[in-house]
Amino acid sequence: MRLHLQQLNHLSRAPVRRILGLMSGTSLDGLDLALCAVSGAGFQTKVQLLAFETAAYTDDFRQAVRQVFALREVDQLALALLNVQVAEEHARLVRAFLEKNGQPPVDLLASHGQTVFHAPRSWHGVPGAPNATLQLGDGDHLAVRTGLITVCDFRQKHVAFGGEGAPLALYGDVLLFSDDTEDRFLLNIGGIANFTWLPAPRDSSTPQAFATDTGPGNTLIDAAARHLFSVPFDRDGLLAARGQVLDGLLATLMADPFLALPAPKTTGPERFSWEKTADTIAQMPKGHHNPYDLMATLTEYTARSISQAIRNVARPDMPTTVYVSGGGADNPELCRRLQQHLLALPLHRVDALGIPANAKEAVLFALLANETVAGEPLPGAQGMPWMGMGKIALPG
Prior knowledge:
About 40% of the residues lie in helices and about 20% in strands. It is of the alpha/beta class and about 400 residues long. A hairpin with a 5-residue loop joins strand 1 (about 15-25) and strand 2. The protein starts with a helix and ends with a strand.
């Protein structure tokens, strides 16, 4: 143990740390692995992406996660076993990735884990109960199976400080992407869509940056693709492109009270579930709808809810650009509709800022691990509760 503590002490002062960031989102498509060379900390942080891969999950593993995913009542044995199984599967994928990309050796593993339930007070409605969130994939098992010091369980410190455990992208976005000449929205369209607003310039007279969820991202589109077409997702938005928007259904979906809540706020697939949406569809007149029209409507719903949230924040007197990442960035039909509703606000992939769109979240967790090991508190920075997030698990 003393050796590992000495190693951590050395890493905290090293000029460069090689950190492998891991991210598995609510879309359950696979594990993102981003190997980063990170120097400095805080506002002096610099990140170079050395290698990136999305390792696809097997159908069996995906189905095992869905047994407990976003469900209020689950088999406790399945939940306990899955906490280990997620770590072991992630460790297997890490070892395979490092066989190809692990020279020189990696210093730290930064593991987000797999979110299976997210319960902010604004959603769960239990009187007097706290915010809560749960990610599976135990850090000790991951550290032992990989032999790497592992920083994990990032969201719990945020909850302990009074936050909702999401979105955490705010911290990395502020450090890496703030600009003095334009307001920026760093939009991530995963299962749930969220953005970080970075107002310019970054000084005491500028409104404070914040991050917020906006509502559904890919979660309803993917679920509809599975249930209506027996495919895992709407590749290139081709299914939605063949349909027509059902105005009545869209109006009902857009009336969800969450969309009217002021930002910042968080949510999850627990609220925007296929089961709830299917009930809404069944209650509409002419309940047997063309499945392509349903895909078009859910895609339009996602685009409108995102654009509405952005336009509610955007300052009309400032140059503003929206930079998109996440799986939704690869859906041309969704992005076309989104750009249509953003009006004059240009929409670009975050690649234009030097980080590939699909790698961004994994890179940001590598950055959070860097702050845990080498960062200093930055009181009041952009109005954020700045804390070292993540627990450190030792491999021995």
